[in-house]
From TrEMBL, chains A, B:
SMART domains: HTH_MERR. The gene is soxR_3. One of its GO terms (molecular function) is DNA-binding transcription factor activity. The lineage of its organism: Bacteria, Pseudomonadati, Pseudomonadota, Alphaproteobacteria, Rhodobacterales. InterPro entries: DNA-bd_dom_put_sf, MerR-type_HTH_dom, MerR_fam, Tscrpt_reg_MerR_DNA-bd. It comes from the Bacteria. This is Redox-sensitive transcriptional activator SoxR. The keyword Transcription regulation applies. Keywords: DNA-binding, Transcription, Transcription regulation. Pfam families: MerR (PF00376), MerR-DNA-bind (PF09278). Residues 1-69 form the HTH merR-type domain.
Amino acid sequence: MLDISELSRESGFSPSKLRYYEEVGLIRSVGRRGLKRLYEDEVKTRISLISLAQTAGFSLGEIKETIGSEGRPDLDGTVLAAKADAIDAKIKELTALRDGLRHVMNCTAENHLDCPRFQRIIRVALTKKQVDGKRSKKNPDKGRRN
Amino acid sequence: MLDISELSRESGFSPSKLRYYEEVGLIRSVGRRGLKRLYEDEVKTRISLISLAQTAGFSLGEIKETIGSEGRPDLDGTVLAAKADAIDAKIKELTALRDGLRHVMNCTAENHLDCPRFQRIIRVALTKKQVDGKRSKKNPDKGRRN
DNA sequence: TCTTGACCTCAAGTGGGCTTGAAGTTGCAT
DNA sequence: ATGCAACTTCAAGCCCACTTGAGGTCAAGA
């Protein structure tokens, strides 16, 4: 059992952030000591998980949907699998990007965007993403979601 | 040379997004055909790069700072190296997260947050992050930036 | 008992990254 | 010459993830 300031100190999350997460149902407190919220130790793992998932680019909504509001809501296997696959895809993109940057560092081309090697690296990373495929016919300014 | 609708179609970025990027100096057009902006082909690579960098969690500001407003502003090697390292760190986190999720999928523990294997995976991912170290003394609600 | 300081709630504000909408301009086809 | 679709600008709006601020409450110590 920890209060909010302990949890904040140990997790590196500001108290306001912790309260906010509780408000949106990502974590929960299990009571009060006076006014102070009390958290179970478990919540530390939960917070770490949330932090990682955010790094992976998931929204709080997606995270909640994946890990549930309580610990239990038996994390649906297919959801988890989908997220794991999404992360895999992201890892590939990041790897390509990193390689691209490292290449640029010791590439002598004056304009790196013209460097064929660089372009290939970037393009390869995105062909995976191109599963997004095609969408709206015309393009009267509307469209896509990224 | 392409106009905005062609670029939009080929890149999957909405016209408004392209105009916005131009406004903030991430891309540039090289003239007009009538009213229409004209872009060089180079900008496609640039856009791909921006997209990847966003996936990696960088803000538009950071991206601009890294790849410059024009193609040239000779991408500072140390900045690039730092970004590459940051991406490496992120890859490690994502890998751990993915492994964690995959583990949960065929872990029989009723509450996965209690599963020691899972906890270890998560913890390992974050110890890398703990370079963030310590900060403010007290914790009167102020503090940190994540 | 009184103060103090760390917590509390709730509403409003912030910054990033765009999108939307109104009003105007343009080139091309009729 | 006229219409119209596809652009243009500019300001305002929106969603997300929080932070900030005002005003209130509590419990531990002087």
